Amino acid sequence: MAKAKNSVIKKWFLGGARGIFIFFSLLIVIQLVFDFLWLPSPLRLIVAGLMLTAYLAFVPSFFYLSKYFKKSETEKAQVSAILFSISDAVFAYDRNFKIILFNPAAEELFQIKSSEIVGVTITPEMINHPQFSLLAKIIFPALAPSLLKMSLDKENARLELKFSEPKEMVLEVTTTKVIDTAGNHYGFLKIIRDRTREESILKMKSDFITIAAHQLRTPLAGINWSLDLVLNKELGALTEEQETVLKQAKAASQELIKDTEMLLHVSEIEEGRFGYKFVPTSIENLITETLIKYEPIAQSKNVKLIFYRAKEPLPSLTADPERLKIVLEVLIDNAIKYNVKNGEVRIKINPLIDRPFLEIKVEDTGIGIPEAELSRLFTKFYRSSRSLKEQTTGLGLGLYLAKNIIKRHGGDLWAESVEDRGSVFHFTLPLDPSYIPPQTTITEEK
Prior knowledge:
CATH architecture of the largest domain: 2-Layer Sandwich
Number of helices: 12
CATH superfamily of the largest domain: Histidine kinase-like ATPase, C-terminal domain
Shape: elongated
Strand content: 15-25%
Helix content: 40-55%
Strand order of the largest sheet: 2-1-6-5-4-3
Order of helices and strands: HHHEEHHHEEEEHHEHEEHEEHHEE
Structural class: alpha+beta
């Protein structure tokens, strides 16, 4: 009933400007005739003057209002045409989760007609209703069975969700706030892109990398074992030149083994198979063990390793020590590799004052990273222009892997750098295990 009434009002304003003008003109004429017949002469002229003034002031306002309604309806029609022509599913809801827009692609994806859903308020309990279950999980992502990827910024949130019902699907959901020019928040707009086919292709590529890396493992281990056998002079004495060449081959073999392991780790993360075993862990002991491992490498590069322990004893935290060791190895290895002669690598650890987290810093006095490239530092296969000049080897997967491991622990990893002065890599770890997310989400900055 209310919709019909609003429609009549709009038609009245939009289509009847001339009729309204004539109607009000007739009213004024009738009123003037009435005044001239019944009012005394002086009052008659005053009232007539006031009515004519009001009439002349009202007419331009009416036509402006008519023009405004026409423009508003035109803009609304244009926006609706755009949204309804998009091939991706699009729907909007207000702050009370009442659906206010549902385009044809959304009708097809959710198998719900717009006429059935517009005006309906969606609640978490609707996941138990077969017709609305998928829609409720999209609106409330915490209820979705599997969160694959997550990207957040001030304007939008982008999630990649995996569903097994009503069929196998991978959906990319982008959520943006609906805000007017005055800053009023009206609700949310969601755009859903079906990435099922793309993810299937990516899985095939990932499977190929996994199989290839596994196949490389055995021959690489054999090569490494053979080189050790020769270098240990178990097959006879070596000349100085032969020993030098074999040591170079050994270093190249170990680098290739490390890259192969890195490829396997990344594939396992993206397939959700990179398992974690969370146990009470001493981060100080992990740092000490890693520094002992890298001390010979640092000495060969004339780089000094320094560990600044926390001023107060630190509690153990819940973590996967083997996975955290990968993070420390990546950061310390990079800090040594891209350092300068007689440089330093400084590791600092302290609890945060405002949150139940530890912050670990890995500082170096190396070549630094160009400021314009810092935003791409944690993406797959990315290596900075400076690092490519200094070190030609490496796949550019270490920081991507480290970022995802820290995110899985409920912390964060970021970097600061000044060219030719060095870099500082910070990462945080929660002291409270409730901050650890329940499942793995792939994190890649763009």
